[in-house]
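User: Fold this, then the next.

Assistant: Folding the first:
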Amino acid sequence: MATKKGAPCNFSEGDFVLWSRVDARLPGNKLMVRWVGPFRITDEMVQHVSNQGLLLNVERFCDARYNDELSRWELEVSWQGLEDAENSYEGLEELFNDVPAKVAAYVAENSSDGLRAALAAPQE
């Protein structure tokens, strides 16, 4: 969505966009850029996940659960500046390494004995 020297593009519902691609099926050694479209933007993709290099701040913790598959405690994180639909469960140890004061405050106020024990274990 951005050229090497360009800026990221944002689109709104109702906008029209063109998609560029190189057509390698053309005869000869030439690669011709073709523009396909226009395509109408119909809705916002809130649930789309990609690595965009964003640094997010923890707004608050919403819930805690034990993940049997990974054998670890996880906290549901509400990220600052993002919608509730974008909350995610993150591992307790990773969160404690990043934001120890917030994790300790949440565990002290809102959690079960199992979560308290899990938080105490990495600190010992």
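Now the next one, as you asked:
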Amino acid sequence: MDGKRQTVQQYFSDHHGIQLKFPGMFTVSERHKPNNYYPVELLTVAQSQRVTQQQQTPEQISTMIKASATLPQKRLQQTKIMKEALDIKPGSQVLASAGISVAKDFTKDVAQLNFSKIVGRVIRNCSS
């Protein structure tokens, strides 16, 4: 960049002729080149891309396991707190500009457990 500082929006406009639709969104940096920033709107995730356990630190694996083991009531409460903290609500102009709509309440559904029928017979003790 010839030593001058510029925003990611300016860089992509000047060097690539790309006008960002969401210049205020966060960027993603490379692990091995942390000074390279990419607008999230220009990135795609390859189909079926996943992170292997070898690519995660033990702390990340531990956090993932703990998060997935959270009681449903606690997870719902945490989600409500994060939703409020991130100002995710119906009518949000930022979300609407990205084509995202948000319902006022969480979706409710009736849980059902389908038990398999066990077919068998009772054998009486014949040793009397």
